[in-house]
Amino acid sequence: MERSRMHGAGLLTGAVLLMGGGPVAAQTPLPIPDTLNGATIDLSLQEGTWSFRPGQPVPTYGYNGDVLGPTIMLEAGQPVTLNVTNLMPDLTTTHWHGLHVSPQNDGGPHSLIYPDSTWSPSFTVLDKAGTYWYHPHGHGFTDYQVTRGAAGMIIIRDAEEQALPLPRTYGVDDLPLILQTKPVVAGEIMLHTGLDSVVVVNGVCDAAVMLPAQVVRLRCLNGSNERSLLIGLSNAMAMHVIGSDGGLLAAPVPVDRLPLHPGERYEVLLDLNGMAGQTFDLMSYGSELPNGVMGSPDVSVAGTTPDGYTDNALNGGDFRFLRITVGPQTADPVTAIPATLAVVTPYAEADADVTRTFVFAPETMGPVGMVEGPYLINGALYDMDVINEVVELGATEVWTLTNNTMVAHPFHIHDIQFHVLDRNGAPVPAHEQGRKDVVLVPPMGTVRVITRFDDFADPDMPYMYHCHILMHEDEGMMGQFLVVDGSGVADRKGDELLVWPNPAQEAITIRWGAAAGPSAATLTDARGRTVLRQAIGRGGTAARVDVSTLAPGPYVLTLTDQAGGRMARPVHITR
Fold first, then answer.
1. Cα distance between residue 521 and residue 532, in whole Å
2. Cα 304 → chain centroid
3. 460-499 per-position pLDDT tens digit
4. I need a surface site. Which of 86, 164, 255, 415 has the fewest CB within 10 A?
5. What is the model's pTM?
């Protein structure tokens, strides 16, 4: 493991960034997280103390320091082992948000790290160049641990990105910005108060930075527990969006306002040529957010608002994240914004194998339930022992997300990046047309996304999907899915397992390859319980299996022949 940009003791530097010999004239210099890279990376999740406001220390959590964590620098195609040691008294996990890794390495609620123990996932980086992040993801304590400070950024480089004339000098013209609002009350970071009124960037309030008079790159992450942002610049200049959650866009998209919802990342370029000596602010224009989005002027039903919402002046307000002063150019500046970026090829809806529907609804109907939850997905709260969906490896799927609540939900899917087909039947703005892993589903609205489940399958370890408002997630607005490989094992190559109809209501018909001998079929439910066994005879002939008595839901069909050859397929039973 290699470390770079060390700034003295602790994770975040308090040193002033120097540009051309002049210090930043500001309230609090913007800290730049250290970086970690190499084939082995060590992280320690630990307790600490940090002053978000000067002179007001509060207890915090951080990776390798008091708050937040180092930026992990990775190269596409490289193997990496991440050793995560839990030095806290509580259970935890660490999820690599946005990375395409196996479920065993994903860091969801099933990958618990006990106190004084280490979890060591190893994988090859398969993702495109972009901005990702990491944070705890234990069921019921994600909000607590992330809000107290446990989070960090991941930057991935690849050959396509390296060939472009883009800023990439970390901390100089390529800046990580972890944007958050914190509920700091009476010397503690509180939970579920709605009073997240402390505005921080990279862990500090009233942040300021000097940037060179050239093209600079801002990697913006909304790491807040619930607040959506609408970022823009106080001098009304354009921001050029070049990347979304999963990598670069096809071409820069100029915007004057950029919605940034919890868990989302966008990379933007600022053209600061000829602006030396000017000062302006990176803002969030909450007054312009649509109602129903957390942070907007109004989230209410019949006069009922979320707890503490009307007491927080940030809701519906405009506020500054970062003061930017423009200084001299660097020795080797990027001075132009490229016209084109990466090859972006969305999946074709005509190629979809399966369409799934996910409906968000309050557990209890009424004004309080509609704006505060808890919220259900397809009629259920999260249960670690229940597999909600079974996906076939290699399948292209359309997921329809329907929100029957009065609160917008930023929806995150693990394992994959998706493309957004439409929102309320209309195309999404150009900056959302790249690879995404978080999408906002508006109140009483619908979003459709398309994705493909490649590379990783496991019959036992699931991936998650959930709302990225962390309180909603912890209260149960989450589900889990298995990706199952139905292509068979080595001694059954060349055979084919056909199952139809699928989804089924009354019966399914099974036909295995001609080489298979007498076989047994089993169906297991979402809890892994065997609910049906049936002999189906030799391969090459069709067998009918009655499923009329089984409850609707996802199942896994497994066929085993006398020689031990096995094949599996997901089966969906509907009524």
1. 8
2. 30
3. 899 999 999 999 999 999 999 999 886 543 333 345 677 8
4. 164
5. 0.86
